[in-house]
Each structure stands twice: as structure tokens, then as C-alpha cells.
Amino acid sequence: MKLYLCTVLQTLSLDMSNHKPKAESRSDEAEAPDGGWGWVLVAALFVSTSLVFGLMRSLGIFFVEFVQYFEESAQAISWISSTGLAAQQFFSPLGAALCNAYDARVVVMAGGLLAGLGLILASQATCLVHLYLTMGVISGLGWGLVFTPMVATVMANFTRRRTLALGLAFSSVGLSSFAFNPLFQFLVEMYAWRGALLILGGLSLNIVPCGALIRPQRCSKAPEKVDSEGGSSCAVMLRRVSSYLELPLLFERPYLTYASAITLLNVGYFVPYFHLVAHSRQVGFSEYQAAFVMSAAGATDILGRVVSGWFSDLGHFRLIHLLSLWTTLAGVFIMLLPVSSLSASYTALMVISLLYGFCSGALTSLAFAVVPLIVGVERMMGALGLLQLIESIGGLLGTPLSGLLKDVTGNYISSFVIAGSFLILSTLTMATLPHYFSCTDPPPPQRHSPNDKDKSLHSELEQINSLSNDMSDGGAQ
To answer: What's the pTM?
Structure first.
């Protein structure tokens, strides 16, 4: 009887052990190939990102035009770009959830249509409210449906070269900033701000073919997990929505800490891109000199993203430590930007802008590459969406706060100093992450699934099997 029991246990153990490698092999196949079609998606992300954040960074050219045309304060005009940024981040969880439920290709293509439509409608605006709704809400919704799904799709196709792939794709932001600022200035002079926005709306429609390059696939197995559970239809729907959005992450301290740090970073990160042109013109530089400052910062931004991605993938330092370094340096250089207003030196402004551009580009890809190290690759899509939602608070308040400080003080000195201090505070918040001072990354938490019960049963069977063998050996002696 004991021999028969041992044989049965060994057979069950062998069947389960044979089943486990198959599941693992399927997981490994789905895991990043570090090449192939992934590089096509990098190119698609390159173009779409330039038409989202590259365009968003260059909207400072329209800032002065809106102030003059609508005769409103700098704070009121700042809400246009701030609303667009906040909407992009606020609707990112919606984009992630739709990708988990349906198809990332359709979601990104729909986002491209909305992004272009918002700018086209903005060209016909007659008051600031129209700009808030078109450039802010409609285009922001489109950007939210584009950015997070595209980033998550690229990250899912790479493992060892993930940071480099993101760095190369995000380098388009700096490249487009370098090209868009003088281009937008030219378009405004040739066609006024209405004609320029109409052209930008047409350019944004190029996001649609970028989304079409995504291969149709379901990005999550959450529905299978939820549908297998019992309960009322309402409860099942709530569990399904929670699974799509990865809401349990909001109860995990490492993720909340990191999201808080990125939110603080977001308060000051975009301030130079929205107000540096206006600051340069206030100091006394010409329109094209002011636009070229942002173009030069965009050039070093490209270099920073590529160099940071290449160096990070070497593995000499932890990504969170490199992110902290670049964030701190970017904050310091933001605070030093107003030095040009004291010395009226265009050279000083240019040098500091170049250094800021490099550091701001270097930290961007790292901010996303750290996410799977904290939550795991399985929950990456939802985690990126929630991260964008949480940090939208910083994006919503950052530029209006700097505009308010300008209205109160009459210059942008306090605006840049406060903005830089938020980046340094972000670094201090990252330092409170668990295992921050460790030299190695802790293993990311795994999604709990019903298969865990099978693994637990498999472990128990192995223990029983081992115990039975020991008893058999003892009986033989």
C-alpha cells in the first residue's frame, strides 16, 4: 500500500513538473525578444512621442501670441498647456484599461484621431474656454490614449535593451523640440496662430498609422481570471475593471512612494518648456534667439536620452540611483536658468539650457524603465496608466503656479527656483523606497493567480514524496 501511494505521488509530481516548464516556456516566448518587430514599434513610438510631448513642449511659442490676442494674464494662458498635459496623464489609465480589455492598435489609432481633431478645432477658438476644451481636453484625451499603450507595447518587446529602446524612442522629443520651435515660430508669422494650429492638427494625424503598426493581440489575461470567479454580474464587472486598471497597486507602498516622487518631479519638469521662451524675451532677447534656446536644449535632450539608455543597460548602477542623479542635476539647472536675467548673458542662458536639456532627457526613459522593477512586467500596462494619472496632479499645478509667481513678482526668477526645488524633493522621496540603498534590485512582486495554488500543491506533493522516500529507505535498512 505504501509503495502504491509513493508511485501515485511520484506520477502526480511528474505530471505537474512537466506542465510547469511548458507554462514557463510560453511565458518566456511572450517575454521580450530584444529585436525583430520590436524595433519597428520603437520607430512608431519615436514618431508618436514627437507628436505628443515634442509638440507639447513647443507650445510655448503660442504662449505669447495667446497673451496678446486674448489679453489675459500669464496664469490664465498657462492653464491651456497645463490642462492638455493633465488630461493626457489623467486619461492614461483609460488607455491602459482599454488596451487590457480590447486591442492596443485600435486604442492608439483612436487617440491619434482625437489629438489631431482637438488642435484643428482649437484653430477656430474665440475664447480661452474653447482652447481649454480643444487643446486641453480633446487633444489631451487623444494623447492619453496614445502614449501609455505605445510605451507599454515597446517595453513588453524588450528585456535587456529596454532602457536603450526607450531612450532611442524618446530621443524624438528632443529632436522635435529642436525642429518644432523655429518651425512653429515660422508658421505663426506666416499663417498666424490659427493657421499654425490647423497645420499642427494635420501633423498629429500621423499618429494613426503609427498605431496601425501594433500587432493585434490581447495585452492582459485579467478577464480569464475575473470570469472564473463567482458572484453577481455587478461584482464581476467591478472586479474586471479593477483588474484592467490594476487598482490593487494603490495599496502597495513601493508603488505609491514612486508615484509620489514622479508627481513631484512633474510639477517642475515642464516649467522651462512652457516659460523659458517668454522668460528669454522678457530679458531682452529676440524671438528667434528665445526659440533657439529651446531648440538647443532639445538637441542635448536627444543626447541625454540615448547616452542614459546605453549607460543604464550596462548594469553598472541601479536604475533608481541613476534616476535620482539625473533628477537632482535637472533640478539644480532649472534653478540656475534665471541667472541670465541677472547678467543679461545669452551665453550663460544657453549653457545652462544645454545642461538642463541633457539631464531632463537622461531621466525620462529611466522614469518608465523603473516601473517594471517595482511592480513586475505583468502589471506594467496598468501601472504606467495609474502613474500617469497620479502625476497629472503635478502637471496640472506646475505651470499655472509658475505663471502665478510671474504675475506676482513680475519676472520668472521665483518660478524657476520653485520648479527646481520640486525636482530635488522628488529625489528625496525616492530615497524612502524600500531597499533604495541596496546595491541590487529586489525581486518585483508577482501577480497572485489561481496557478499559485497549483504551485503550492506541487510543493506539498514534493515534500510528501520526499518523506515517503525517506520512510521507504528507512524500512529497507
So the answer is: 0.69
